[in-house]
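We were asked to recover a plausible sequence for a given structure. The inputs and outputs are reproduced exactly as logged, with field labels preserved.

PROBLEM: sequence recovery
POSITIONS: 397
GIVEN STRUCTURE:
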């Protein structure tokens, strides 16, 4: 479940990103060698036949099958739409860079032949698509119904259909061992209903090591779990290690859902940029960095956990991943879309493009740095999500 959810969500988000590059490239007349789903090696692809006589053929006969590596997409006159072996993400091959060929001729349909503005728009289109995807996903979440916490101390009689929900589960706690998860709605405990967090916490605090039965609603499915409260050093009291809050489910009409999706996408962008700014200040001043980073393994584990909560939480998490991908890519760092746009701006200011060889070296250096950072974060993920990773591996067999 974890691996399938991660592959589907990540590929969906990256597909939208690459679709932005592809669509704007085609709109500006840039030759696109290949638009691939998944990462090479290529399994197979489809390419429209270039022979004009084929226009009289039925649509399904105007395409030819491309197998394996038999065709180099950079030398193709038409786009290859491919399915690749590694089912993660996707890519767009805008063609071979011939801007520094020996005869100094440039294909007018190539990326390098286009104006600086058009090249910047092509590179920024992926980021735009991820922002748009975030707005759409959040709008769907708001239309489907999202969970909102009731402010602490509020008069619950003013709200309809108030639930008592689990907002956090302490790792290694009795609740975690029992199988309780964040997002579970508590129906009853030991056949008794509890309307507030204080009442349930008080009930659990006087039952150390006793058999306690939780009946919960998880994405519409009623489930039961047995936990044994114990003294928790983290909170210095007896309990099962869960955070609790009163919640209500809210469904918004279409127009409000899209407005809230747009508004909260903006809020997320501001929040993430503030976090990046704080991190940079802490790096410069040699302070301890407060932010916690999660790599591919951590994202995979968290995706699997969220997927178990249902489709709506998974869509909300996908929206968060999408906006993070957008912001990371727009940063002016070598190898990222933002870094490539920065070189276009520098070339425009200088009145002369940066040497392609020099730019490639800088981008490759940036790529190596990014891979190194991912490896460091991955090692931390293994220490942080070790049990979750093991569970994922076991689930494959």
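RECOVERED SEQUENCE:
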């Amino acid at each position: 479940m974890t691996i399938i959810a991660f592959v589907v969500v990540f590929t969906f988000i990256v597909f939208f990103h690459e679709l932005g590059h592809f669509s704007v490239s085609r709109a500006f007349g840039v030759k696109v060698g290949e638009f691939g789903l998944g990462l090479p090696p290529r399994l197979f692809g489809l390419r429209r036949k270039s022979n004009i006589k084929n226009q009289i053929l039925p649509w399904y006969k105007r395409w030819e099958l491309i197998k394996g590596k038999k065709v180099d997409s950079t030398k193709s006159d038409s786009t290859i739409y491919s399915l690749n072996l590694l089912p993660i993400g996707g890519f767009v091959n805008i063609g071979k860079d011939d801007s520094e060929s020996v005869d100094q001729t440039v294909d007018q349909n190539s990326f390098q032949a286009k104006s600086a503005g058009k090249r910047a728009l092509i590179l920024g289109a992926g980021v735009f698509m991820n922002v748009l995807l975030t707005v759409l996903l959040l709008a769907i979440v708001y239309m489907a119904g999202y969970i909102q916490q009731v402010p602490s101390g509020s008069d619950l009689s003013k709200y309809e259909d108030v639930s008592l929900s689990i907002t956090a589960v302490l790792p290694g706690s009795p609740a975690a061992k029992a199988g309780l998860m964040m997002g579970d709605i508590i129906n009853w405990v030991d056949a008794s209903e509890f309307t507030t967090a204080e009442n349930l916490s008080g009930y659990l605090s006087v039952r150390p090591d006793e058999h306690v039965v939780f009946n919960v609603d998880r994405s519409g499915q009623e489930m039961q779990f047995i936990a044994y409260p114990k003294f928790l050093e983290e909170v210095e009291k007896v309990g099962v290690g869960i955070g609790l809050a009163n919640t209500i489910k809210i469904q918004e009409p279409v127009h409000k859902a899209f407005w809230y999706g747009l508004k909260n996408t903006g809020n997320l962008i501001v929040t993430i940029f503030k976090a990046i700014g704080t991190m940079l200040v802490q790096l410069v001043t040699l302070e301890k960095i407060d932010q916690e980073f999660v790599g591919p393994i951590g994202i995979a584990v968290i995706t699997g956990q969220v997927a178990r909560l249902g489709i709506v939480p998974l869509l909300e998490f996908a929206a968060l991943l999408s906006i993070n991908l957008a912001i990371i890519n727009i940063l002016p760092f070598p190898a990222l879309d933002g870094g490539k746009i920065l070189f276009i701006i520098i070339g425009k200011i200088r009145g002369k493009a940066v040497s392609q060889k020099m730019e490639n070296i800088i981008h490759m250096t940036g790529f190596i740095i990014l891979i190194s950072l991912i490896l460091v974060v991955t090692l931390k993920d293994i220490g942080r999500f070790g049990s979750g990773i093991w569970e994922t591996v076991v689930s494959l067999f």
